[in-house]
């Protein structure tokens, strides 16, 4: 399973990239707004930190505007993935960009039917939002299972399922058990995956015993 981080905070991205566990980055207009920076500057900086796919979302809502914005975004770096909303215009733009060899991420997916459309439009990634479905009393992970089952039925569908709106480690584990290709994680969720109290307790005990030996490895 690939791990992307869902943030436009370049300090966070730099720190997490050092782990060697980061396969890509996703941003959205809200995350860019939170960064307080200009989108072109932030995306360029992220692309220089992380060699994997970096999603940059268009703000236009009609086809021509989306393509104009996509041309600007994809000129930033080879690893820019143009993020498009799951709308008729977004999927039309997805098909155009996919045919031109540009990576795409179709976002705001809330149904299996929508995911199937994104795959038929040639999306590199489709982003079902599990947390936002959970928020309204639906099981977001059921959607991931449905999409993976559908995609598995057709060799021609190459779109990767990018689990988005992840809120906690259980989302990550459940998505991995289902075989989702990618999860995009807020930095805090990614960091929380390391934690287990028995790891901390065990390490403290080993170090205490080691200190008693008076030895040094180097
Ligand atoms: C995905 O690409 C989105 O940016 C993100 O996962 C949305 O998460 P949220 O529902 O926590 O805003």
What number of domains? 1
Could you state the order of secondary-structure elements as H and E? Answer: EHEHHEHEHEHEHHEHEHH
Q: Tell me the strand order in the biggest sheet.
A: 1-2-3-4-5-6-7-8
As residue ranges, the low-confidence spans are none
The kinds of small molecule bound in this structure are:
erythose-4-phosphate
What does this protein structure show overall?
With 218 residues, this protein is an alpha/beta fold. 51% of the residues lie in helices and 17% in strands. The chain has one domain: Aldolase class I (TIM Barrel). The chain is built from 11 helices and 8 strands. The chain has helices at residues 10-17, 29-35, 39-49, 63-74, 88-99, 112-120, 130-135, 140-152, 169-178, 187-192, 197-213, and strands at residues 2-6, 24-26, 54-57, 80-85, 104-109, 125-128, 160-163, 182-185. The two termini are 36 Å apart. The structure holds erythose-4-phosphate. Erythose-4-phosphate (E4P) binds at residues 6, 26, 28, 107, 127, 129, 131-132, 164-165, 184.
In short:
This protein has 218 residues and is α/β, with parallel strands linked by helices. The chain is built from eleven helices and eight strands.
């Amino acid at each position: 399973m690939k791990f992307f981080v869902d943030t436009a905070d370049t300090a966070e991205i730099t720190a997490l990239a050092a782990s060697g566990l980061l396969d890509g980055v996703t941003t959205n207009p809200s995350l860019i707004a939170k960064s307080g920076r200009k989108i072109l500057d932030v995306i360029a900086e992220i692309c220089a930190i992380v060699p994997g796919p970096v999603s940059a979302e268009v703000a236009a809502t009609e086809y021509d505007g989306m393509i104009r914005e996509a041309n600007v975004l994809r000129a930033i770096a080879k690893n820019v993935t143009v993020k498009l909303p799951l709308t008729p215009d977004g999927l039309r733009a997805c098909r155009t960009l996919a045919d031109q060899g540009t990576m795409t991420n179709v976002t705001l997916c809330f149904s299996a039917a929508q995911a199937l459309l994104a795959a038929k439009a040639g999306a590199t990634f489709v982003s079902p939002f599990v947390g936002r479905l959970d928020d309204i009393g639906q099981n977001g992970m059921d959607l991931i299972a449905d999409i993976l089952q559908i995609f598995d039925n057709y060799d021609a569908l190459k779109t990767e399922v990018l689990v988005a709106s992840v809120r906690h480690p259980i989302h990550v584990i459940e998505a991995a058990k289902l075989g989702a290709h990618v999860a995009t994680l807020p930095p805090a969720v990614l960091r929380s995956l390391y934690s287990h109290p028995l790891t901390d307790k065990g390490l403290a005990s080993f170090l205490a015993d080691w200190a008693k030996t008076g030895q040094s490895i180097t």
